[in-house]
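User: Hi! I'm working on a homework problem where we have to compare a predicted structure to a textbook description. Could you give me the structure for the chain below?
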Amino acid sequence: MGVTMSTSARDDHKPRSAWLALAGLAVAGSLLSGCSSPATAPAKAPATSAPARPEYSAPAAAPSTAPPSLSSAGALAEAVQAQLLPQLDADGDRFGTGTGSPCSTSKASVFTAACEAAAKAIGQDTSQALSAISGKSGFATLRRVATQLQQAVTNYEALGCGLSPSSTSIRQQCLPPAALIAQGVQDLQDGVNLALAGR
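Assistant: Happy to help. Predicted structure tokens:
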């Protein structure tokens, strides 16, 4: 036989069912709100700096095949060379140099007019050289040689060495300047050529 619930029993059951329903809704809402909350984002890996880019360096320029232009000093030395060498070459051919010169101290001609003529020519060459390089740098050797030769010519002429002096003392004094004069053309040519190297 079925049990019949009384009216009062049913009325007592309604509030309890309503409370249980509300509690269930609250729990479900909590669960839903928990599910809908954004998940904690995973920690980012520490940023790493990008590797430094190597500095760009332009490729080295290919060496020029064109001949280098003459510097102003080199051009000046060539101009002096062109001015002096023709006369020096002519004097060398005319009077000879070294032991071939009449001013060679191994020859008796050192005390004659032949050496005196060579001395005059060397004197003119030295004057021309010193005039050409006056106030210019880079001619140290030529300037030194020309100055020494100029003094040698002055001493030779002052002593009268080309007039066949009879004094042994004078003859001895004539030998050092005569030796310089005998080598004068070659020394001046060397001085002119060394000027191309700035010496």
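For your comparison, note the following. Confidence is low (pLDDT under 50) at residues 1-15, 27-42, 63-69. The chain is about 60% helix and 0% strand. Good luck with the assignment!
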